[in-house]
Request: fold
Amino acid sequence: MNQTGKEKNPNLKKISGIKMKSIGVLMTCPMHKYLEQQLETHFNLFKLWHCNSSITEFLKTHQGNTIRAVVGDTNIGADAELIASFPNLEIVASYSVGLDKIDLRKCEEKGIRVANTPDVLTDDVADLAIGLILGVLRRICASDEYVRIGKWKDADFGLATKFSGKSVGIVGLGRIGTAIAKRAEAFGCSISYFSRSQKPFANYKFYSNIIDLATSCQILIVACALTEETRHIINREVIDALGPKGILINIGRGAHVDETELVSALLEGRLGGAGLDVYENEPEVPEELLGLGNVVLQPHVGSDTVETSDAMADLVISNLKAHFSNKPLLTPVI
Amino acid sequence: MAGENPNFQNTDPPTVLVHRFPTFDFPPGNRLSTQFHLLDPITSPPTSPVLLHSIRALLCIGPVPVTPETLNRLPSLQIIVGSSAGVDHIDLTECSRRNIAVTNAGSAFSEDTADYAVALLFGVLRRLPAGDRYVRDGFWPVNGDFPLGFKLGAKRVGILGLGSIGSEVAKRLAAFGCSIAYFSRKKKTSVLFPYYENAIDLAANSDVLIVCCALNDETHHIVNKDVMVALGKEGVIINVGRGPLVDEKQLVEFLVRGELGGAGLDVFENEPNVPKELLERDNVVLSPHCSVATPESFEALQDVIIANLKAFFSNKPLVSPVQKD
Reply:
């Protein structure tokens, strides 16, 4: 924890440990058991879901000024109401890389630090993008079901579509987009992308217009951050440009895609298929999708592996410890 | 060129005898029927046995056996053109003895099969089909988060058979961050991945075994009980080769006892029958032998078949001959 301190003064760690144990940390939802245990071990942990996930209810039985840190995730982050309720809040450590559930402007205003979990989850999310493509094109979910319900005895399964060599378009060439591109290249895919600005070191074709990207590729992958500008960036126009043989993969945020338009495009055959890990109103998934054979649906599992969940948890804990030891945050946002 | 080959007249395409199960055929409108005179005894039984005696080329559609009895009926046969990567249904020893060349699908299927191996691995480690079912069955709002999977790149991948398919698998999984090792009949000098001299040693040093070697007498049940023990309780087996490469009975027992982490299987020992114990398991992904069932693979297969037949009928080197060793 505090190696320098340990060398200078062997008692410092013990004192710091006791001090840390009294620090009030609010966890917004049950995101990962290991993280919960670590927070309980190191801090004075409060769990918002024990109060029906309601700040108002929490404040009926707890003092707002006891909370000095909030650990949020993609479900419940730190919005203006939460920030206002905890006057002693010093840091929001998000168990996610996405920041769309955090009122960053409010945090900046009040001098509240924000940390997230970049890099440790890049591989898992990029893996899932490819996994969803394979799921949609090679129909492994449908074929698994076919065997389980005994249909193979009656007839062969039928044709799928090849993935290798197809053209892939990536919306957002950040850490995750770049990792997706590297994987797709191993499948012989041609890569192009749309981004706020061209990346000088990326050896892929850049499109300054997302419609042009969608027109040019067979598989379109959403891998950008969710901001005001990127909300519903995948709209009817983009979906139509992708076309009846096109596949949409969303490992970003549900709000990136106009879900109503997506559903109607799939039902009408204007879009070839979709692989989705995120939805506009999780955990609700549009009922019309549940019966479609050309979609693969995942329950927001982008970084949900044992290895990555633990690594994310460790990063959250490290950021909190660093902050409360007056050390630099490992992965600061603000 | 036409003059060298007495069979090939200006307008008459060469005759090729088709050998297939009655229920298994190429789709109609395929390019083969325009390039060659395909004689199919199932749809048009030959009126005279003399016709069979003059057949030089046999097109084997699907895994229909080619036995000494088959060959006895075709005394002029010089080439068997297979339609799959595997040729375990063809008696290669007999063919060699009679100087009959055999060709397979070459690398027509390699990319699709490699893609499928990755898909199956992803399905097992990241639980893709189980997650999809979870959403469709409405459990997400009720039961909350889906259980965690495992990171692909954290796995040591052992490839059994580093031929055309195995190499493509290695290339893909290396991009996911997996470390790759392999076992093959012979060490490949140009390959930098670690080589193991037998399947057990490979398994002992791997978390995932991907079976993509040819099926023959030496490789029957190459993934046996000892290999499964060496692979370990978290181990995952992916089979895109042939069912009999894996001792299926042992595999089922290991999975049921929790002594193996999971399996992704496109092939089985007695297709289309799948052991019923596997049907309920969430840590397996099952597939009805469809790793090459794409229009793209079929086009590539036709290219290879046409190229091999054209080469044969013009006395040129074959494109994808199978060596009997």
Observations:
- DSSP finds 13 helices and twelve strands in chain A.
